[in-house]
Write a structure and sequence with these properties.
- It is a multi-pass membrane protein.
- There is one protein chain.
- It contains 17 helices and no strands.
- The chain is 79% helix and 0% strand.
- With 416 residues, it is an all-alpha fold.
- Helix 2 packs parallel to helix 9, helix 5 packs parallel to helix 7 and helix 5 crosses helix 8.
- It has 2 domains: 208 residues, Growth Hormone, Chain: A, CATH 1.20.1250; 204 residues, Growth Hormone, Chain: A (Up-down Bundle).
C-alpha cells in the first residue's frame, strides 16, 4: 500500500520522524512525560528534608542524603544503563526504568527508619538512570535532524517542570499531612506520568542492537572523548550544571538574611523561576534548528553570565531578575548542548548521551560541594565569584565551538 510521508510520520530519505506528524507528537508527548516523571521522583525529597530531620532525629546533613544518594546513583548508573540499551533497545530500558522507579517510589513512604529510606532512594536512583541515559539517544535516532532541536527542547522542558512540581507538590501536602503522605502524593503523580509515557511511547524504528562487551564499551567511550567537539560538550555539561546548582543551593540563604530577610515560605517560591527554563529550553531547541546550535549555545551562556552579575545587586527585584535570566540561560544552554551530543555522535549515541549526563550530574555534586566552601568563606559574593569562574570556562568552550563552526575546518556534520 502506498502511504504519504505525512501518513508514515517519517522522512522518505532516512525513515526518521518529522515535525507535524502523528508519530512526532506521540514521541514528544512521551518524552515530555518521561522528563516529568524522572525529575518529580528525583527531587521530591528535597522539600521534605526538615520533616525527615525532625521525624527520624537525625542531622540535616544526614537527611539531605535523601536527595544526594539518588542523584549520585543516577550519575553512577547512567553509563551502564546506556550500555544495556545498546543491547536490549531504547524503549525497553526506558519503560523498565519508569516502572521500577515508580514502584519503589510508592513503597518509600513505608520506610521505618532513615537507613531504609536512604537505601530505597539509592535504588530508585539506579532505576531512574535508564530514562535520562537513553532519552537523548532515542530522540536522535527517531527524529529527523532538522527537527531534533525542537524535540529535545520539549524533553528538557519536561525535566524543568518535573523539577519544579517535584518540589512544590510535597511542600503543599506537607502543610496538611505528614511527610509520608507528602512523598506518597509525589510518587503517585510520578506513577501516573510513567504510565502516560509507557502508553504513548512509539517503538524504535531505527535502533539496531549492538554487541555489548566491556572492551567494546571502553573503546566506544574513549572514541567519544577523542572527538574534540563532544569532549567540549561534556565539559559544558559539568560547568553549566555545576554553576546552576551552586546558585540555587545558596540563593535561599541569601534571601533569608539581611538586607532581604524574607520568610521561608516566600523563599521556597524561588523555584518558580524554573518556569523560565520551561520556555527557554523549548525555544532554544527550535532556535538552534533555525539559526544553528553554536550561536544559540553561546548566547545562552552569555545570558547566564549577565544574570549572575545582576544578582550581586542589593535590590530584591534586581536579584530576582538576575536569577530569571540565569535560569533561562542555563536551560537554553542545556537543551542545545544535550541535543548537539546526539547530533554529533553518529554511532553509539546512548553512550555519548550518558557521558554528557554523567558530567552533568558530576558537576552538580562536585561544584555544589565546592560552592559550600565559597559561601562559608565570603557569602554570596564569593559564591558568585566561584560560579563566575565556571561560567568563564564555559564561555570559552562555547566560543571555541562557535568559532570552529565558522571556519573551513568546521565541526563535521554527521551523515543524514
Amino acid at each position: 500500500m502506498n502511504r504519504t510521508v505525512a501518513d508514515r510520520g517519517s522522512d522518505a530519505l532516512d525513515g526518521r520522524t518529522t515535525r507535524g506528524s502523528r508519530e512526532y507528537r506521540a514521541i514528544t508527548v512521551a518524552l515530555f512525560a518521561a522528563g516529568l516523571t524522572t525529575f518529580v521522583s528525583m527531587y521530591s525529597a528535597q522539600a521534605l528534608l526538615p520533616a525527615l530531620t525532625e521525624t527520624f532525629g537525625v542531622a540535616p546533613a544526614v537527611a539531605a542524603l535523601a536527595v544526594s544518594v539518588t542523584t549520585g546513583m543516577v550519575a553512577i548508573a547512567i553509563v551502564p544503563a546506556s550500555v544495556l540499551s545498546e543491547r536490549f533497545g531504547r524503549t525497553r530500558v526506558m519503560v523498565t526504568s519508569a516502572a521500577v522507579s515508580s514502584v519503589l517510589g510508592i513503597l518509600l513512604p513505608l520506610s521505618p527508619n532513615i537507613g531504609v529510606l536512604l537505601v530505597g532512594r539509592a535504588l530508585q536512583g539506579v532505576a531512574l538512570a535508564g530514562i535520562p541515559a537513553v532519552a537523548m539517544a532515542y530522540l536522535a535516532e527517531e527524529i529527523h535532524s532538522r527537527d531534533l532541536g525542537s524535540a529535545m527542547g520539549r524533553y528538557v522542558a519536561g525535566t524543568t517542570i518535573g523539577g519544579l512540581v517535584g518540589r512544590l507538590v510535597p511542600s503543599v501536602v506537607l502543610d496538611v499531612a505528614s511527610w509520608r503522605w507528602a512523598m506518597e502524593a509525589a510518587s503517585v503523580l510520578a506513577l501516573v506520568l510513567a504510565v502516560l509515557m509507557t502508553r504513548t511511547l512509539p517503538p524504535s524504528r531505527n535502533f539496531r542492537p549492538q554487541r555489548v562487551h566491556p572492551r567494546i564499551v571502553v573503546t566506544n567511550l574513549l572514541g567519544h572523548l577523542r572527538n574534540p567537539a563532544l569532549a567540549t560538550l561534556f565539559a559544558l555539561g559539568f560547568l553549566l550544571m555545576g554553576g546552576f546548582v551552586s546558585a540555587y543551593n545558596f540563593l535561599g540563604f541569601r534571601l533569608l538574611d539581611a538586607p532581604f530577610s524574607l520568610p521561608e515560605g516566600l523563599v521556597g517560591l524561588v523555584f518558580l523561576m524554573y518556569l523560565a527554563g520551561t520556555y527557554t529550553s523549548a525555544a532554544a531547541g527550535a532556535a538552534a534548528d533555525r539559526f544553528g546550535r553554536p550561536a544559540v549555545l553561546l548566547g545562552a551562556v552569555v545570558t547566564m553570565v549577565l544574570g549572575l552579575a545582576i544578582t550581586l545587586a542589593q535590590l530584591l527585584p534586581l536579584v530576582l531578575l538576575g536569577m530569571l535570566l540565569f535560569t533561562g540561560g542555563f536551560f537554553a544552554a542545556h537543551s542545545v548542548a544535550s541535543g548537539w551530543v546526539g547530533r554529533l555522535a553518529t554511532e553509539h549515541r546512548a553512550e555519548a548521551s550518558s557521558m554528557y549526563l554523567f558530567a552533568y550530574y558530576l558537576g552538580s555534586s562536585v561544584a555544589g560541594a565546592c560552592a559550600g566552601v565559597a559561601y562559608a568563606t565570603g557569602g554570596w559574593p564569593a559564591t558568585v565569584a566561584f560560579i563566575a569562574v565556571l561560567l568563564c570556562v564555559a564561555l570559552m568552550s562555547a566560543s571555541w565551538l562557535f568559532g570552529k563552526s565558522r571556519r573551513p575546518d568546521r565541526i563535521p556534520a554527521p551523515a543524514q
